[in-house]
Structures are given as C-alpha cells and as structure tokens.
Amino acid sequence: MRVLVTGGAGYIGSHMVKMLLGQGAEVATLDDLSCGYRDAVVGGEFVKGDTGDRACLDALFGRRKFDAVMHFASFIQVGESVRDPAKYYRNNVTHTLTLLDAMAAHGVRSFVFSSSAAIFGEPDYTPIDEAHPKRPINPYGFSKWAVERVLSDYDRAYGLKSVSLRYFNAAGADPDGQLGERHEPETHLIPLVLQAAAGRRPSVSVFGDDYPTPDGTCVRDYIHIVDLCQAHLLALERLRSSGQSAAYNLGNSRGYSVNEVIRTVEAVTGRTVPVERAPRREGDPAVLVADSKRAMDELGWRPRFNELETIIRHAWTWEQKRHPTATEPGRRQA
Ligand code: UFG
Predict the structure, then answer these.
(1) Is a pLDDT exceeding 70 seen at residue 328?
(2) Are 164 and 5 in contact (CB under 8 A)?
(3) 140 is catalytic
(4) What spacing in Å lies between the alpha carbon of 126 and ligand 1's midpoint?
(5) How many domains does the chain have?
(6) In terms of residue numbers, what domain contains 137?
C-alpha cells in the first residue's frame, strides 16, 4: 500500500509514518517543516512542501499512484487560532481543499483526516459520542469541523471516501524511545509538567481550580500516540474494504484532572513538580471525555496503553533522552 502522509514530520504524523513503515507500507511524507522536524521522519520518501501548493501536489501524485492520504498537516493551537484566525482557516481549511482537489483530480479516493474533540465545543454531556452536537467555540475547532463538512459533500459529489478521527488528548511517545512530542512553543499539559519535573522550566501553571469537577481542575481523556496511530491503520483498512466514509471519536473513555496528571508525573519521575495557580484559560471546557465505543465496535480498536502512568512513562523516557543533562532541582528530598 502506498500512503502519502502530510505533516509526517510532526508529533502524530511522525509516529504514523513509523507505524506504516513497520506494516510494510510504501510511505511518502509531505511537510513544510513549519512545525515539524526532518529528523522525526524515520523512513520513506520526504518532500518538503506545502499542502496548499497545487503544483507540488500534482508532481507528487503524478509520480506515483497513492492508495490513500493521511492528513496531519495543520496548526493546532487554540489560543493562537483566536488571535489569528486567518492563519488557521488558510492552512487548515483552504490548503486542505487544495489537497482534496488534487486527490480528486489524480483519482486518489481514500482520505484519513485528523479531526479533533474541539469540534464539539462545550459538551452537553460526557462521554462524548459521535452524535453529540458540533458547536466549536474557536477558529481551530471550526476549521476541523469545516473540513469534516467538506468531506461529506466531496464523498457525495466526487466519491472521495474519508474517515475523520476526532482525537481527544494525544499524549505519550514511541515506546522504543525513538520519537516523541516536540512542539515549539509547547502548550500541552503533559510535556510541560515533565519539563517542570526535569527542571527545564521553573513550574507548571494550573489553569483554573474552580471548575465543576471533583478537584476543581479540568478533566481530559489522554490517548497514547501509538493507540491513536493504530486506530488510523484500522480506519484506513475499513475505509478501503467497506468503501464507506465514517467518523470516530478516539479516547480512552476515562478522564484525568490536571492535578491527577501532575501527581502521576511526580510518581513516575520521582520528582516534585512546582505548581502555580493561574486563571482559567479561555475556551477550556471543564470535562472532555470520549465515548469510543463506535471505534471499538466497528474498527475492532483496542487501546493497549490506556493507563495514564504508561503514557507519562513513555513521554518521560523521551524527555530524558532529548535532554539528558537537564538539572534536577525538582528531585525529591530523601
Ligand atoms: N493546562 C494547564 N496548564 C498548562 C497547560 C494546560 O492547566 O500549562 C490544562 C488545560 O487548561 C487543560 C488541560 O491542561 O484543561 C489539557 O490542556 P492541553 O493544552 O494539553 O490540551 P487541550 O485539552 O487544551 O487540547 C487538546 C489538543 C487540541 C485540541 C483540544 C480539543 O491539544 O489540539 O484538545 O479540545 F483542540
């Protein structure tokens, strides 16, 4: 199978490239390296380019016949999307349209799309199933929902089949220690807490402790990057065998609060994490937990690393490998 992975130099895309190669797929990565890292692409062909560059796409699709495209190339910072929506609509929507149009023109008909729990906005109920109303509350979430709508129209009109995978909180790292999470700037909770544990940042801020949750901090559903990638493989398999477009919510159906994440990091690392209270971050729902029953029933998806402790342990191994000389001011006193 030949798969084009856009954003294959990024966090999720790089793990996907590795897994596809491990399955014997022929893989090409298209990434403009605006957020990704060339050395995170562990094999296959690499093309530096933009998904909005039609000439580049025509050249790529003209050179060989891809069976599918997995599309990870997008901007992901909710706060930035509020400040600079044009950047998000241009890249996440317009460039995706260019990619889809090029696929349609070259007869590539299978598309796996990185969607997000952000399409649901403030949930009416949790766990959140696929039927939950879609009411995004920021441009990032709108950009993902807009593409999902485009995909259902492109299916009807052009026969382009797709699976949209709505990730809850992707976390963790390659259990081999070869790959992990590298965002610049980092905004995600687990890597930030690990950096504080490693002494690479003075403390971690807890954004709000007055939410209607058991300990007052936000609850999220963390899903291991390898389980997430596994779901992509299964989704692509099903898409190709059934010829039916679909959408799945991907999480572990179990939520952990910000305080629980910090405590688990302390337990895994044996370090104390200095914590600061901070105001709520705008646009953060109190609880986001997935109902992933559909993915389990229809795809046969079974997350292997569903313990928060395992997710954090793999991320910690990666953090230590990248920064082996970090000072250890947070080391617990005996
Ligand atoms: N948090 C802190 N301090 C920090 C960073 C985060 O308290 O320094 C809290 C947040 O307020 C939130 C939780 O930790 O309650 C998790 O925050 P992340 O930024 O790690 O993840 P989000 O839940 O905000 O975002 C994730 C994806 C987004 C996606 C969103 C869907 O990273 O791409 O889920 O709602 F849009």
Answers:
(1) no
(2) no
(3) yes
(4) 17
(5) 1
(6) 2-169+224-250
